[in-house]
Fold this sequence. Notes:
Elements: E1 6-12, H1 19-35, E2 40-43, H2 70-82, E3 85-95, E4 98-106, E5 112-117, E6 141-145, E7 148-152, H3 161-169, E8 174-178, E9 182-183, H4 188-210, E10 213-217, E11 220-223, E12 230-233, E13 237-239, E14 245-248, E15 255-261, H5 263-272
Parallel strand pairs: 1-2, 2-3, 7-8, 8-10
Antiparallel strand pairs: 1-15, 3-4, 4-5, 6-7, 9-12, 10-13, 11-12, 13-14
Helix pairs in contact: 1-2, 3-4
Amino acid sequence: MAKPKFTLGLVQMTCSTDADANLVKAADRAGAAADRGAQIVCLQELFRSQYFCREENAELFNLAESIPGPSTEVLGRVARDKGVTIVASLFERRAAGLYHNTAAILNPKGELQGIYRKMHIPDDPLYYEKFYFTPGDLGFMNFDTGAGRIGVLVCWDQWYPEGARVSALGGADVLFYPTAIGWHPHEKAQYGAAQLDAWRTIQRAHAIANGVYVAAVNRTGYEGTPDSGLEFWGNSFVADPFGQVIAEASADREEILVVECDPERIEEVRRNWPFLRDRRIDAYQPILSRWIG
């Protein structure tokens, strides 16, 4: 029997310095996506605040919250009232001195179905995440929903084919990547187009290599000072199992994308481009090495 089509909702928005206002805004837009037919709604990375990892400041640990906690309570009500699954990226306070960049999955009953803790943690200018986040310890997680099986990864994870592969091999129909990525103010003119193209290309490649849908959900807007801020480049998108972009947001506007996906497309692509069939799993042991010299 053919699997039914499912509909994704992607919420791309700006964030203010008011965490409570951001939560209300995100909840309202998640509900709006559900009203337009979305069965699974994904919010951008760390939507409750501006992207605080632009600096190393111990006071900013105060932004963290428990899971379950205030955000999952508010979004859980939306999930229950609208009958929708919500993927919410949060700054998790696991214990005193132990913090994670964590995606919470809320089911249509409003319950916390599970969490995924970001595995790959960057440390680059204006992306000082290693100061704040302990790397995830749950592995790559998939979650069953009434609209299909989803893999949830977070931002920097999107550059690693290994995470996408493991999630796909676990049966995911779609890979979600809640994201916060943008241009440094002094790099955009020279490198901006290439950076955006690389970001889009690597995720389309995950879709092609694994024959799955990929949904990348980025924020938009400028955050920080003129000399040390980030211009988040938006461009949230959904790619089909052959890497074709079937919906894409703008760079500089808040948008809600609602996108219908057909699981039969997964079957079609995998039959005609049988990358999973032709994998040489007997020869891949060296990939577990840090370097082969």
